[in-house]
Write a structure and sequence with these properties.
By secondary structure, the chain is mainly alpha-helical. The chain has helices at residues 36-40, 73-100, 119-147, 150-171, 177-183, 187-192; strands at residues 9-12, 18-20, 28-30, 49-54, 57-62. It has a 3-stranded antiparallel β-sheet, with no helix packed on it. Helix 4 packs antiparallel against helix 5 (177-183).
Length: 193
């Protein structure tokens, strides 16, 4: 997905209609989009779309768009990379909301379970769980496969085969114990998976 950089201009419907960068009394902000890239993305003449505005982002979405039924591997990787960036933007938005919420007051000697219900605390907890438990891992996984190459995949296969062979040899009593330490995952590697 190629990123486009645009400039917000001004539109004046009075006297001199059209695009301008100079302020006029009745001017309003305007964004001008045009090009064959819109057509390639499905934004053809007469197509309907929705516009969503949230946290400094405009999102234009075609209505009634039929999903693609086939993707080549490079196309799928490109889409997955773009989706991981979108998820990262969602995490940034969640963090913005999190930072803007009032923090609950903790009193000495009270456990979290002993505090009175607090809507802000519930929102904070939900954001922490969604970002920490789900979205961070999803972003990492999608970004990784978006960049994965056949060569890396083959190298990983051979590393795994060598690791399994070392474990098999140790189980059969034919491998030194220091090789087993290299073949077995560490506690931190198990926790990461």
């Amino acid at each position: 997905m190629k990123r486009k950089t645009l400039t917000v201009g001004l539109y004046s419907g009075h006297r001199e209609p059209g695009w301008s960068h100079s302020e006029k009394p009745d001017s309003v902000p305007m964004i001008r989009l045009r090009g064959r890239w819109l057509e390639r993305a499905g934004f053809v003449n007469g197509a309907k779309m929705t516009v969503d505005v949230l946290l400094g982002t405009l999102s234009l979405t075609l209505t009634g768009r039929a999903p693609r039924t086939r993707y080549s591997v490079p196309e799928a990787q490109q889409v997955l990379g773009a989706l991981s960036e979108k998820l990262a933007a969602i995490v940034a938005g969640l963090n913005e909301v999190y930072d803007g919420l009032p923090q609950p007051e903790l009193h000495d000697g009270l456990l979290e379970e002993e505090l009175a219900p607090d809507l802000a605390a519930e929102l904070l907890g939900a954001i922490e769980c969604v970002v920490g438990d789900y979205l961070a891992a999803a972003i990492d996984a999608l970004a990784a496969v978006a960049k994965l190459t056949e060569e890396e995949l083959e190298r990983e296969l051979w590393r795994e085969r060598a690791r399994m062979e070392t474990i098999r040899q140790f189980a059969a009593g034919t491998a030194p114990s220091n090789q087993l330490e290299l073949a077995l995952p560490t506690a931190s590697a198990v926790a990461e998976s």
